[in-house]
Amino acid sequence: MGRKFFTKMISLVLITCMMVTLFAGCKKEEGKETVKEDTDNKKVTEEIDPFGKYEEPVTITAAIRTAGTNQIPFEGSMWDKKFKEYGINVEIAWSADASQFDNRLNTSIASGDIPDILPGISAQPMSTLVRGDMVYDVSKVFDYLSTTNKKWLTTGAGADALDSVTIDGKVCIIPTNVTDLINNCFPLFVRKDWLDNLGLEIPKTIDDFKNVALEFTKNDPDKNNKNDTYGLTIMGQTNLIMDWGGLYGFFGGYGVQPCTWYDGMLFYSKDDDGNVVWDGTRPEVKEGLQLLQDLYIEGAIARDFPTMDGVKVMEDLNGGKAGMVFGVRGLPMWAINKTILNDPKAEWYAMNMPTKDGSHAPIFAFQPVNTGYAISKKCKHPEAVIKMLNIATAMTDPESPMFNPDFRDTTVSGPSIIGITNPSYERVSNESLFEALEKKDKTNIDKYMVDNYDKVMEYIDTKDPELWRFWNAYYPEEGHAWYLTFGLNKPDMLKKNEWWALPTDSMLSYLPIYKKLAEETMTKIITNNAPVSDWDKMVDEWNELGGDKITEEVQNALK
Predict the structure, then answer these.
(1) Quick one: pLDDT at residue 504?
(2) Overall average pLDDT of the 550-558 stretch
(3) Concatenated DSSP letters of 80-125
(4) Which SUPFAM superfamilies match (predicted)?
(5) Residue 368 phi/psi, 5° resolution?
(6) 459-486 burial, b if ≥16 CB within 10 A, otherwise e?
């Protein structure tokens, strides 16, 4: 007894010492000293304070992407005043709304006169700025990052994002709007009530998937004694090889990805010999196209799919005509949410695309940076930009002692100029929602998930069809889209693109050619107006028009 008591006391003392050390370390990280070299290459000690105020105010110039005529001007706004508290005066160099922003940005870049901060820039201007050596190496002022921003940018999804914008050891962009790579899954949504009506199981293999598509087409799955249903709906007019309603999720079943990501990028992987190849050259693409052609011939894909847009696809889904579609986790909220209003027995089931052997399909992961902030190489106080980022995070992060909810509402606080979010926030907050729903206790739920919790529970109690979408999206059970994404899918299912960087100039120039060629060829093959072997002809043509050049760039970069 005495020995156990002594052991407990020792453990308590050690834990206390560790906590004191830990908190002391955290406090020190927000204000610390580093050794650097001055202009004479002499080592000097510099005080680093991520929230340090300037005794003599400094000026930072910035561009703003405006949002409508009702937007609060930056000058005199809450953000303007907050930055001034730290001795940072922000001057707006120019502003433009979304329709004019890119033109204004390109003019600014072409003139060689960019402000200290360029916000929300996409892949093409990013590439131009980097190629023109116009941006500051952000890694030089990383010591000024607050503890929270350092964690968000250098671990997990943030680290993946930072890696993709690091060129020759220089961090060229501050990535924003980054989320966990696990978000990249494109589920297959299936009418579960139709499966039940026909005595079918959830498809586990591609053969099962084909059978379900045919049964939905030929055997009256809604039991209305009419031949008015079909298996798989495809948005052929716009999204055939990208985004929801297209075939992006379909090819996961074959382990290959000939479709493009949102920034237009192609997917590269290693073959059995370790060579990096473009997935469009893999024979499994033609296997998938053959299945789609078979389904079209059997009537399991709509005859008019090449002209179908999002409106028509949603009409067929909500109107009880189509029984399957590939999409993103948000479909229950806005694309299939009216199905239950037309058929109270309707039930959608979200799942990963089945594979040939019943194993898990990969979740294809592209470099996660679509937009970011650039700091001008001519900026005189780049560390002030990082301090602005720290202030922005501290004012908007609910976990921060400086948190003020008014700063999260730009209609109240005005434009923030700069800011990033926690890449893991959506996953972590949804995990808290799942746990709360399982325990029927929202005590410890993320406060921004309380409304979703309440609506799911209200649907369970009332079966109000207007609330069905929340239950179908969030309930922690197989078949629910958010739970599939954040509860069932695991990081080891990710298959990362071998090209993990911003698109090159060649990629940005040539990829629209591929999109047009691929869409035209896939459409002809699926509608049986061309043999599946025509895909090889398309690959040859694409390679001549730019594909070979891009693949060579990728292979050389990865040597």
Answers:
(1) 82
(2) 93
(3) HHHHHHTTEEEEEEEEEEHHHHHHHHHHHHHHT---SEEEEE-HHH
(4) Periplasmic binding protein-like II
(5) -90, 5
(6) beeeeebebbbbbbbbbbeebbbbbbbb
